[in-house]
Structure formats: C-alpha cells, structure tokens
Amino acid sequence: MAPAKPHSHDPAHRLSARPLPLNASELLDFAIANFRSRTALEMAGTRVSYGQLGRRIRCLAQGLLDSGIRAGDRVAIVLPMSIDAVIAFHAVLRIGAIAVQHSDREPMMRLSREFADYSPVAVIIAEYRLNALAGLDEEARPKTVITVQAPELPKQAPRRLTFTGALAEIAKAGGKGVMRVAAPPKGPAQLPLSFGTRAKLKDLLGSAPLPLDYPYPEPNDLAALVYEGGTRTSALGAMITHGNLTALAHQSLEYLETAPAGTETGYALWPLHSTIGIADTLTTSLFYGRHTILFPRFDHSALVRALKKNPPSVISGDTEVFRFLAEYARTTGKAPMIRLALSPIRREHTPNLRDWARDLGWPLVVSFDGAEAGVALFLRTSVEGREHTVGTPLPSIEVRVVDVHDRGHVVGPGTVGKLMIKGPQVFHGYWKKPDETTSVLSADGWVLTSSLASIDTDGYVTLIPSPEH
C-alpha cells in the first residue's frame, strides 16, 4: 500500500481507515494462524515462534482463570522488557481481564499510589520487585501474586544509569552525566506480606491451553489502563479498549506500511508500559507478523551486534537511539538499510532529525503520542520544509486547535491554541475519575491535550513550547 499523502485537518480531505470489527486477542490469533512457524519474538538469543507464542498465551490464560482471575479484573504487570512480559499482557487480554503495565523500576511510592487507584486483583511481578508490595495499603493489595524469576536482569542492572534525551540536557546543564539507581537486593526474594494466592508464572505456563472456542472480549471492552499522567499525589489511569488497540494498529499500518505482512524484522527499544511500547511492540508489530527483537535497555554494543546479525527493516526508539545510529553511520560508513524508523518527538527538545536522516541514508518518521490520544500524528523527515512540525493526522483522526481559555472555540490556521484530537484510538476516560475525564474528553469524543499548537492550511501540526519553558 502506498504511503498516504499529506492531508488537511479539514475532515473532508482526510483518509478514512476501514473499521476493524476485531478485538486485540482475535487479531493476534489471526497473525498466529498465518505466521505460525515464523519467529515472533527474540531476546538475548532466545526465539519464540508465532505458534509457540500462541500456545504459551493460551496456557497462561487458562492458568490465570484457574487462579480465579476473571473478565474485567485488573491485573498489574511489573516486569522488565521480556518475552514473558509480552505473553503476560496478551494472556490477560485473552480472558477479558484488564492489563496494567508498570516499569519494573517504578518507585514504590508511585506503584503504591497507582495500585490504590485501580485495585488490582492480581499482580504478575518480577521476584526482585516483590519488596515493592510492602508499601501497599491493605485495600490496594492484590489477592493473587504471580512471580517471574528473571535473575539475569537484576544481576546486570547497572548501579549507574546514563541520562538520555531531555534528561541528558538537564544533566549536562547541571554538570552531571549519570544518576544512581538502587541495586537489586541480594539473596532470595521474599514476599513481605501475606496474600491469598501465590503462584509462579512458569507453573501457570504448564496449564492446559485455553480452549480455542473460549469467547473473545468485545471491541468496547477495556483492555488496558495506562498511567502516564498524574501528580505526586494523584494517579490517572487512561482507559484503553480492545477497539482502541486495533485502531492504533490499523491507522499506522494504513499510513506507513509498504512491505508484505510477515516479512519484516523490527527492533523494540521502548518500554512496554509506554504508549509507544503498547501501540508498537505489544500490538502492531505482532499483528503484522514482524520478527521483533526486544532490547531490555539501550546498550550500544548489543545494538551493534544485532545490526550485524539481524538488521531491522523497522525500528522504534528514543532520539538517543537515532543519534547513536547516525554517529555509527558517520564513523563506520555503514548504515543499516532500514525501511521505517519511528521516534516520538518532544516539544522543547526536538533534535535535528534531518541531519540524522541524511547521515543514515533513510528518512525518519516522528510521532506525537500520549495515553489519551494514542499515536495520532506522523511526520516523515523527507517532507521538505516541514521539519519544525509533527506532521499530519493518521487516517480516521481529526485534529483542531482551540482557544486556550475556551475549548469550544476553534481557532483558524496558524493561530496558537490547545491541540485537540479525535478518532477511534482516543481513550475512554480516566479510571473512576469522571471529573478529570470531562475536563479533557468531550461528549463527542474530542480529547484536549496539554500541548500548545498551531495547524497550517495543509494540515501540518506545529507544537509550541509552553511559556514556562
């Protein structure tokens, strides 16, 4: 399919994506059936085919049911980037439960605040993070704890963490280049409190597979809660449905894909608890039959080894990833032949993407994303004269700019205001927070972002730095 042409913010000039009457689990099963023998996931030399992935998801799904987890239950996932984390996410979705992804390095106080917000029935957690459960209030304590042994990650977890992206600029200004992180606890992990059920993921993977005719969730059923906003004292869980996930995949594939499904290799460098991690690694890449290589952290040597052994055709990552790749290409004279490169763009820290694209020999595609609006805007760096923008909306997405004091007043082209986004990927509100929901989500489906922006007459969106920056 040819790339979509730039289109205006006027709905009459936008492309319309065909609706997908599928939930995320059904769409993944369709990919599994079509690419059964193809490698789905790879990490640290371990490969899992689509057929193996499907069986493991069904086995864990049955194990979750046997553990008392039911449709509509919230299941916390506190795991590092790993094959097990991908399996856990889709097993939760398959039985109609709601997955809530957390970083395996999330501070105890934030984890406790978010658990208190959505009250998970169960948690799938790396053994080295069990102590994080000690800070939970009794009412937020999950009844079921499913542990995952991942000794290789704690052993390798660095005591010093290099700043990247915007943090690198802040650190540089402050004369710092690294930050201290907690070292993994020594000795066997201990569960600090008593819980109703304790199980091991590896044991649940030994369950009989979930029957193939087990009913799928409905497109409007909740699939995930995403915690990207909030404050030091409050948590905001963006409600994402199965329909939102399939829309995200369909929109990006409609706009970007030109290669046949089941033929590409992709690199995953975004955390699985992020919007991009969910939209790309956990859903779109698998739905499209990609061979996805997981990188638990951005490691220069690991990335170079992978480039030589399994060069990607698709890669998504932080700006630091592409800065490194551009430098690698300049110093070695070797640029990987990548068809599609995706990187979220940030307002005040936009790098010179065109320079990197020139050094690499292929265009980058930058995106604007957020838990509430999904991945809504794309810009190809090959589009002349548009480097200062974040591109145009994806198919089936509408954007508009409204007065900063009155979201009911839409301003004209070139005028700065608050960016609003509408489309089938837009979230369904914040978990049990109706007032916060109505403050950003209109009755007709428009989400008010926190971004200042303007839209030109061709539909390109430019983000404007906030006055406080």
From TrEMBL:
Gene3D superfamilies cross-referenced by the UniProt entry = N-terminal domain of ligase-like
Its recorded name reads AMP-binding protein
Q: Where is the AMP-dependent synthetase/ligase domain?
A: 32-431
UniProt xrefs under InterPro entries: AMP-dep_synth/lig_dom (IPR000873), ANL_N_sf (IPR042099), ATP-dep_AMP-bd_enzyme (IPR050237)
Cite the Pfam families for this sequence: AMP-binding
**Which species?**
Dermabacter vaginalis
